[in-house]
Every structure is written in C-alpha cells, then in structure tokens.
Design a protein that fits this description.
The complex is a heterodimer of chains A (108) and B (314). Chain A is mainly α. Chain A has a single domain (18-101), classed as ACP-like (Non-ribosomal Peptide Synthetase Peptidyl Carrier Protein, Chain A), CATH 1.10.1200.10. Helix content of chain A is 54%, strand content 0%. Chain A has four helices and no strands. The termini of chain A are far apart. In chain B, helix 7 crosses helix 9, helix 8 crosses helix 12 (266-283) and helix 10 packs antiparallel against helix 12 (266-283). The longest helix of chain B is centred in the last third of the chain and has 18 residues, at 266-283. The chains are: A mainly alpha (108), B alpha/beta (314). Bound molecules: S-adenosylmethionine (SAM).
Chain lengths: 108, 314
C-alpha cells in the first residue's frame, strides 16, 4: 500500500473526533523532539518531509511516546514498515492503542 | 591509513595515539560502568553484549546466544592448558562459557571495573575462577609475550578501538604458530550507503557508546593479513543482529520502570541507540561480520564448518 493511501484511510479516524487531550499531548511530544512549536505540528504534516528532522528525531519521538503512553509503536523512521506517515496517523495510532487497552496510560 | 569517515574519527585522527587511548579509556568505559543489574534485564542470561546467531526469527534470544557461544567454541578449538585472551570481555559471556566448556586458561580485558567484578563473580559461581583472570586495562597497555597465546577473541569490542593497525600487529605477534583470532563486530559497507554523518550515527557512536570506528570488512581483513595472519572464514551475521537487537529492545520496553529506577533516563538511551542500530542493520547501512584468522603452523585443521539447512516456508 502506498503511504498516501494509508494516510487517507487513517484520516477519517482523526477527523472522527479522538480525544483532544491525547492529540495535544502527542503533538507536544513531537514538537519538543523536533524543535517546533506545538501549533506548527498539524495533523496533516508529513513525518518524512514536514518535520524537517532526520531519523534520530523520529526515533526519539517513538521512544518518548512509548514511554508516556506505555504502548509499543512501530518505527516511524522506517515508513516502509509503518503505515504511519503523518502527524495525524501518529495521533490515530496512539488513540487506537489506548482504546484497545481501555485506558489512557500511566501518569506522565 | 584509512580515511576517517565520521566526525568522531576525524577528531581521533587529530589526537596523538596516547591521547586517543586516554579518550577511549574514559568515554567507552562510561557506558559499561552502568549497573550490571540493568544489562541483566535486557541481555541473555550470560550477558552477551553482541549479536547471537538466529536460524529462525521465532527463536529466543537465549537460544541464539547459546548457538553463538558454541560456534565460537568450535572455531577456537581450545585444548586443555591452552591460553586464551578475550579482549573486551564484558561481563564474561564468552569467556566464562569457554572456561566451562574447555580446559583452557583465560585472560579477559575490559575498560570497566563493574564488568570485571561481575565477570569474576560469575566465574567463581560456576567454579572456573582458578582458570580465569581479568584485567582492567586498555588493550594497548597490556603487555603480551611474543607467541604466548593460542586464541584471541574480540566480540563486539574492536569497534571501540581507533588504532586498529597497531592492535592487529600486537595480537598477531602474541599468537603462537597455529593460534586463532576471532572477531565479531560491525562494519560499514565499502561503498557508502546512508548518511554516516547523520545525527543518528553520531548518537550511537558517540553519545551512547563513547567512541566507535566502523571500517569496511576488506580494510579489517587487510590489516589482519598485513599483520601476518591467514583469514580462515568470514560469516555475515547482519540479519541475526537485527533479531538480537529487537529482543533487547523488547526487554528494555518491559523493564522500563525498573531500569529507570536504577539509572534515570537510561532506558530511553538504550532504546534509542538500539533502534538506530536495528534500523541500520535492517537497511544494511551497517553490517555485522564474524571473522576467523589463524597464524601459520601448529595443528592442521581440515574441512569447513557445515552451514545449517536454510529455513523454508512450510
Ligand atoms: C559491547 S561489549 C562486548 C562484551 C563481550 N565481548 C560480549 O560479547 O559480551 C565491549 C567491551 O569491550 C571493552 N573494550 C572496549 N575497548 C577496549 C579497549 N581498548 N581495551 C579493552 N577493552 C575494551 C569494553 O570495556 C566492553 O567490555
């Protein structure tokens, strides 16, 4: 599947009203790791090209999200493996993981 | 002279050999001076901090490491009373396995006193302490008698050493005729793939591990040959390293809180550098090889080690 198709399939999940607090927290973590302001980290931003960072920053985002939400995430730095290519995909992924577990994860 | 490929190597090249040795002693030791208890949550039960050998992706880390220890044992073919040097012996994974399974006498060298203590404790517990000695030293500072050793191994350690040519000459001189050298470590492909100056590379080579120098396989083999040894075999273990590191990362995940309780933030460093490593091996921008070389003379060794039957889809 092409990345753009994966993104299209994921988009409705995001638009379909996830937890705004989770979305905000995910965007904050991405912003911190990538040296951007939270407002600039919009759901449509591409991880590969939009964030202007190398694979280390993406790996750091991975690890920080796993730590914060106590989840296991695929490598965002290896887009050929993960069907997650935008910030919105990341938010949808985290929300889906938390929903599957039936909770919000541990304290920050 | 091999041209430097990374910032860390250019800096190393600008130091005198003594300064570089001091740099390695300090910067490389720092990682291995972390609490051994942490590594016991991440690695196999013998604490190998290097690739195992997987035949099947479903195997356990323990199985893959056990296969590697046994492979090393067969390659080194240590007879009773033979003298073995394990350069960069870590917490004693290979050294203690070999002491338990052969009648050799063993000298390990490490830059970390915590590793030395842990390895000595383990050797004692399994009853091989009388044949095991471990020195806290940089290998370049260890005196080796000419033609005094039957086997030398560097497993996951030579990558930390900048002055390779000097080390190869020293080891080759210390091997007896018929002596064996085994190296298992990480190499760059000869033709560059990927960005060797990336932040990810700098993170793993410098921030996490202090100092690493990846050269190409051919360059390492060339130095071994120039030092007077004959290459016996080379195995590509890159894919096995992908699975080894994946197991380590899973273990970091499931022990995150316990690791950070002992060293705040260390689980993050481990997972980050290991993920960089796993992706590099998976993309083959870094390669993992096991090299065996011998010094002419001594016992004749015929045959080749059998290659396992390739796994086939059912
Ligand atoms: C990744 S660990 C591998 C440990 C062990 N060989 C194993 O496979 O489990 C690297 C080891 O090399 C040692 N080391 C690195 N540079 C060294 C040097 N110049 N002299 C001696 N030991 C060194 C470190 O102290 C550490 O024990």
């Amino acid at each position: 599947m092409k990345k753009s198709e994966a993104a299209l399939q994921k988009q409705p999940q995001v638009a379909g009203g996830g937890d705004p607090e989770i979305a905000r927290e995910v965007r904050t973590i991405i912003a911190e790791r990538c040296g951007m302001s939270v407002d600039a980290v919009t759901p449509d931003l591409s991880l590969e090209n939009g964030l202007g960072v190398d694979s280390l920053a993406l790996i750091e985002v991975n690890v920080a999200l796993e730590e914060r939400f106590q989840i296991v995430a695929p490598d965002f730095a290896a887009p050929e493996q993960a069907q997650i290519s935008t910030v919105g995909d990341v938010i949808a992924f985290v929300e889906a993981q938390l929903a599957a577990r039936g909770g919000r994860g541990g304290a920050p | 002279m091999i041209a430097p490929r990374t910032r860390a190597e250019r800096e190393a090249a600008s130091r005198t050999p003594e300064e570089q040795r001091e740099h390695e002693r300090r910067e490389v030791a720092a990682h291995y001076q972390n609490d051994p208890e942490i590594f016991s949550m991440v690695l196999d039960s013998r604490l190998a901090y290097a690739t195992g050998i997987f035949l099947d992706p479903g195997e356990s880390l323990e199985t893959a490491q056990e296969r590697k220890y046994d492979w090393v044992r067969r390659e080194l073919d240590i007879h009773p009373g033979e003298r073995v040097l394990d350069v960069g012996c870590g917490w004693g994974s290979n050294l203690i396995y070999l002491a338990e399974h052969t009648g050799g006498s063993f000298q390990g060298v490490t830059l970390s006193d915590k590793q030395r203590q842990e390895a000595l404790g383990r050797a004692d517990r399994v009853g091989v302490a009388s044949r095991v000695r471990i020195d806290l030293a940089h290998i370049e500072d260890v005196d080796l008698e000419p033609e005094s050793l039957d086997a030398v191994l560097f497993v996951g350690s030579i990558v930390h050493m900048h002055n390779r040519e000097r080390i190869h000459k020293k080891i080759a001189a210390a091997l007896r005729p018929g002596g064996r050298l085994l190296i298992s470590d990480c190499y760059f492909p000869a033709r560059a793939r990927g960005d060797r100056e990336s932040a990810a590379t700098q993170y793993i080579f410098v921030q996490a591990l202090g100092y690493c120098r990846l050269i190409s396989l051919a360059e390492e083999l060339g130095m071994i040959e120039q030092a007077g040894l004959d290459v016996r075999r080379v195995e590509d273990l890159t894919s096995s390293y992908v699975h080894t590191v994946a197991r380590w990362i899973d273990n970091v995940r499931s022990n995150r809180a316990r690791i950070d309780a002992r060293a705040p933030g260390f689980s993050r460093l481990l997972q980050t550098y290991m993920t960089v490593g796993r992706l590099s091996f998976a993309r083959r921008t870094a390669l993992e090889y096991m090299i065996v070389a011998t010094k002419a003379g001594g016992r004749e060794r015929l045959g080749v080690a059998p290659s396992p039957e390739p796994g086939r889809a059912p």
